[in-house]
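Hi U.,

Before I forget, here's the chain from the pilot set. I'm dumping it here mostly so it's searchable later in email.
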Amino acid sequence: MSEPVIAVVGAGAVGGLLAALLDRAGVEVVAVARPETARMIRAEGLTIHSRHFGDGVSRINAVTEIPDGARVIIATKAIALPAVTGLLAQARPAEVVSLLNGIEHLAILQDTTPEALVAGASVAVESTRLSPTVIEHRSPFLRLTVPGHAAESGITAAWRKAGLDVTVGGTDQEVLWAKFRFLAPMALLTSYWRLPIGAALERDTALTTSLLADVARVASLDGVPTDAGQLAGALAALPPSMRSSLQNDLEAGQHNELDAIGGALARRGRALGADTTAVEGLVADLTAR
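Structure:
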């Protein structure tokens, strides 16, 4: 019996890159995209520019619905989650591994596909979609982290077959927070100041300190002990010219993940009785803009 096809939902900067790398490794993969994007991918393939993985064109099949029984990688923005759940409900997938940002989506996916293995994973990469069929991988790395219960999943095995950097360990909650506690302050600060992370961290050190304290407080109360000082050190170690995707989307007037990042952080804080004054202030200002 053949292995279930891997369906990558969201053939953008991250999903398209992963689909192409799986295809290069001989894994049967399809890209799930909007009709026009799917048509273009079928006609032109996916072109990847990467100093790390090398340039190339992958001739990947692209469809508009998830194949029945597929192993599914979700690589859309969080705003697309309602549409994704509709597709999942029809497909009865064998596995669902989500790379969505945030901390609220996993319960929704579990409710949508109760019979499937559902895992909250994370990816660290800088990748940009130059057009619907051209992706530029800019970082010298692509790191994937999956929770322990997905260690033997077909998707994890496929990523390893493709030679990708995969770390396994922790609970879903720990994996999601490990990224979110860095992503949230970076996204909010760069977007608020309209500056790259190096300058944004230094623009108002009191605000930065308050924001990191909020994030550490909520994460710790949510079961993932976090130190604000360590967060500050990790953010300071990032390339100072790095920008966030939220910043880019807001400046371009595009659909964005402000609610999935800042809004989710504030909601979780309120649910846990945590003070998130700094978070709420930044979210309110960015929403008003």
